[in-house]
Design a protein that fits this description.
Helices cover 60% and strands 5% of the residues. The chain is mainly α. Strand 1 and strand 2 form a beta hairpin. This is Peptidase M41 domain-containing protein.
Length: 189
């Protein structure tokens, strides 16, 4: 028989589901930023933001496709990790878990060398490393507050330009080289 772990009930602002969604979306945006991607827009639904990298392959190789899928997994992890940091819990049974599972299986099939589980843990470690940086963690709540205020003002799609401007204030300008942070993380091993 399986034993299921029950998620703690969030307290304070995090008990408001719309605020938790803003935290979650902030996590996706911060992860994308750390990976070197520009946010084009954030739709306040439980989905990652639209990025300049969406469905754009650099080259026509299977490795290029794998890289896009791996980046998407890391970004998906970012929502839950941000929620864990800001709310001390994450949304159990999130659709992102199913998406990550599906994407890691695709990457494993393309790769032919690593298991889906190995890929899952490798990419989760990269996402965890992103949020190990104090500046990233400190940016979660101000970005979530901004996104939540946007929804309260009737804007369910937030311009990437406005999100990027706030992230510039919170984190400084983005690195020039695409994937610079990710490249450093992946080359550590």
């Amino acid at each position: 028989m399986y034993e299921y772990q029950v998620c703690p009930v969030p307290e304070g602002r995090c008990s408001d589901l719309s605020y938790r969604l803003a935290v979650y979306e902030a996590g996706h945006a911060l992860t994308a930023r750390a990976l070197g991607f520009k946010v084009l827009s954030v739709k306040m639904l439980p989905r990652p933001p639209i990025l300049e990298s969406d469905k754009v392959l650099h080259g026509s190789s299977l490795r290029a496709l794998s890289a896009v899928l791996e980046n998407r997994c890391i970004e998906l992890f970012g929502g839950q990790i941000a929620e864990e940091h800001a709310c001390q819990t994450s949304s159990c049974c999130s659709g992102d878990v199913a998406r990550i599972d599906e994407l890691t299986r695709l990457v494993s099939g393309l790769d032919g060398r690593r298991t889906p589980e190995d890929i899952w843990f490798e990419l989760e470690d990269v996402a965890q490393e992103i949020f190990s940086h104090e500046k990233i963690r400190e940016a979660i709540l101000p970005l979530a507050d901004f996104l939540h205020d946007e929804v309260d003002s009737g804007h369910h799609v937030v311009s990437g330009q406005r999100v990027e401007a706030l992230m510039n204030e919170l984190l400084g300008p983005p690195e020039k080289a695409r994937g610079g942070f990710l490249a450093r993380l992946m080359n550590r091993a």
